[in-house]
Amino acid sequence: MMAGLALLAAACGTGEENLGGDKISTDIASLQTASAAAMAEVESVRFDLTPSGAPIYIDSVDSLALTAASGRYSAPGSADAVLTVEVNGSLTTRLGAVAIDSRVWLSNPVTGDFELLPTGFDIDPTTFFDPEDGWRPLLRDLAEAEFVAEEDRGGTRYHVRGTASAERVEIVTAGLVTGQDVEVDLWLHPVTALVTAAEFSTRHADGSTTWVLELSEYGADVVISAPEVTS
Question: So what's the pLDDT on residue 4?
Fold first, then answer.
């Protein structure tokens, strides 16, 4: 079995839903400021990403289409994930991915052995949470931002909507989406201001893709190590 698939087993809950405290004001400027600051201080988090619609390829020859990604992030720059991909429009398989600082390893779809990211692939899970260029500036600079409603989405959440710039979208999609501003819906924890979910759509030559990102287990103990690499 692919070694990378075991990397998520240690993730555990943190009781975030039981956090007490006063709710943050729903004034949109206050929400943006609070959420940007909170996301910049994230030490660890679990992420579950699901794109649907037009395929999103993670290789330069458009043979591996991403259908899901589940993983963990640990500050300042480590992540591991399991990527579910469709190969050449037919076979579905899973790949392990590990990113530490500037190095990224991906498991070989045939052997399952980890290799340093080969030429022709461009995905780094750590960029989802880059404290300088990722969520903090995206939230702070969200254009035409508005508070939509207080909703139940895994607990009470503040639903916020706005337009993210192409530069920020590229970073929080790990380089998979480029060259387009995107309207994004965000759900924030009303006390911590942490983002718990995001949804947006992107345009591509083959049509549009809908992205659903769920964030959970903030602050869990996470240890991410470099995988063994077969010489």
Answer: 30
Q: Beta partners for 203?
A: 208
Using the structure block, give the residue that is written with the tokens 């300088």: 132
Task: Return d(Cα 147, Cα 157) in angstroms, integer.
Answer: 11
Given a cut of 50, whether residue 6 has pLDDT beyond it is no
Q: Is the pLDDT of residue 170 over 80?
A: yes
Residue 94 is which amino acid? R
pTM attached to this predicted model: 0.86
Q: Decide: 93 and 65 in contact? Cβ < 8 Å.
A: no
The C-alpha atoms of residue 82 and residue 187 are separated, in whole angstroms, by: 24
In this prediction, residues 168-181 reach a mean pLDDT of 85
Q: Answer yes or no: CATH 3.40.50.2300 is held by domain 3-8+23-216.
A: no
| Helical spans, DSSP H, in the chain | 28-40, 135-140, 166-172
Where in the chain are the domains?
3-8+23-216
SS3 110: coil
